[in-house]
What we know:
The chain is mainly α. Helices cover 81% and strands 0% of the residues. The protein contains four helices and no strands. It has helices at 2-17, 20-29, 37-56, 60-83. Helix 1 packs parallel to helix 4 (60-83), helix 2 (20-29) runs parallel beside helix 4 (60-83) and helix 3 packs antiparallel against helix 4. The N and C termini lie far apart (50 Å). The model has no long low-confidence stretch (mean pLDDT 93).
Amino acid sequence: MILENIIGITAGILTSISMLPQLLKVIKEKTVEDLSLPMIIILITGLSLWVWYGIIKNELPITISNAFAVLVNLFLLSYYLRFKDK
Length: 86
């Protein structure tokens, strides 16, 4: 059971932070030309569904890790919309 929890928490952390390097790059370079808007929207939708699933199943690690990932990707979306015409 402990190994199972460690694997789940590690997976949650890694997937939650996976888009941070991309977000930091966009903020630093102020360009989004290499990003796909449909990818961002699909990812936010999928992550939001995981949050909903985590709430329904009362699984706090799933809920928290995916909620953090939703926030990161919402910031990425906001920067995409801000820099798309530059």
